[in-house]
Amino acid sequence: MAPAIICADLSFAWPDGTPALQHLDLTLDPGRTGLIGSNGSGKSTLLRLIAGRLRPTSGTVGSTGDVGLLPQNLVLDKQRTVSDLLGIDGVRDAIRRIETGTFGEHELTGLLSEVGDDWDVEDRAVAALHRLGLSMANPLSRSVGTLSGGEVVLAGLARLLLRPSPVTLLDEPTNNLDRRARGLLYDAIADWPGVLLVVSHDRELLELMDRIAELRNGEIRMYGGNFTAYTDQIAAEQAAAERAVRTAEGVVRTEKRQLAETRVKLDRRVRDGLRAEREKRVPGIIAGARKRSAQVSAGKLRIEMAGKLDTARSALAAAEDGVRDDTRIRIDLPGTELPAGRTVLEITGGDRALGVRGPERIALLGANGSGKTTLLRAIAGLGGPAAATVRFATDRVGYLPQRLDILDDSATVLDNIRAVNPTATPNQVRAQLARFLIRGNDVARPAATLSGGERLRVALARLLLADPAPQLLLLDEPTNNLDLGSIDALVGALAGYRGALVVAGHDLPFLGSVGITRWWEFDADGVLREGVEPKSQAG
User: Fold this and answer.
1) Class of domain 5-233
2) What's this model's pTM, rounded to 2 decimal places?
3) Letter string b/e over residues 171-202, b meaning 16 or more CB atoms within 10 A of that residue's CB
């Protein structure tokens, strides 16, 4: 039987009754499927249900064959070894005891059963680790605490490679991975066997998929092809939906006009009848009969015309439902403008001397641990490497750290913005926040209650709406853990920024979309140098 995932009328609610998924149907056959959707739409919950980590509230979920899961956040005991993470400690111990003869009279059968056909498990484990770039000495005995976050993800993937399951689930596998590690992961996924379901916002990874599944408004819709094919189809659908809205709006206008014209005609008939009765041109009994008949006809006509208008309005509402919400931020920030050629920043250290002039947009690349965050913190005046000297030509610097912890979680969204722009009135701040898609009662919410995408937009607003606004903006891995809609919103916000920009990241499609003009890169020796635009590692 071919491996498959089957969900039928699947619903799940959290213990407090909050629904996460409702009446969801999904069938996946062998192949690579990318699962996308906004933050909080239920993607990770669905993977945990398929893996058996959660039980559905109603409906069914199942798979033909074992399921391997790489969760988004691997919470591990730092004292555990890589061997334990790979799940081979028991087999290795059994092999050691058999080879050394350290077992009791009745233990051999059990030890042989534990080993099975895995006599070469250590060699295969080391090979799987090497395939994913984990080629350190004695890798199996290393403690998890000595690995970086990206290396832990790769070790978790190696476990799945070592003992492939018919069904594999990966939840945001490229988070915390540098360019080299991403390339190794892309290579592994390109020929992954069985059913592979990947939750990701990494557009390069999504280009490797055979199909895209979008979880939206509690429903899953399948799109054949990779991410480019998906975006092309969505664009065509949106163009058709917008045409339908324009047509429906025209019909509503026509029905409103005809209803108004009908009312004018009916009112004129009533006036004519009353005038004829006053002037005694018709007998009173006949005039009364005509009046009652006209009233009945007028009532029927009004009901008919109002019904047509209601139908037109319903058609308009249905057409508008087909148009996706616009998640792009469109703002203009003239206060951030820098003249071309003006020196904003100079970095010197050893044989390196790099500067930022005018509204340049610079990508900061390098392997995990190479010093990107340290350098950004030094530029932001938060401490940094002694080997580098940072000289500023502006004190208007904005820094967005990976953790987005620049907000006061106990304060409202409105108060967070007013803290950096105290001369603005509440209504002015509300108007400014609306341009960042934060509207209505959301401005009164405590920052601690914001979702990841909302928090990013408010943090950006706090930086860009400050008085004075920053002329040098530093972003550290800004797309980590963001859904595709939130990434689009970030791109829109940066389109209106007129100052200099330095972005540390590994997401090449995002870096391309914000108009990077120069590339800095830490080399293998930790030296920052001028670089060139890297090529995509997917495909």
Assistant:
1) alpha beta
2) 0.76
3) bbbbbbbbbebbbbbbebbeebebbbbbbbbb
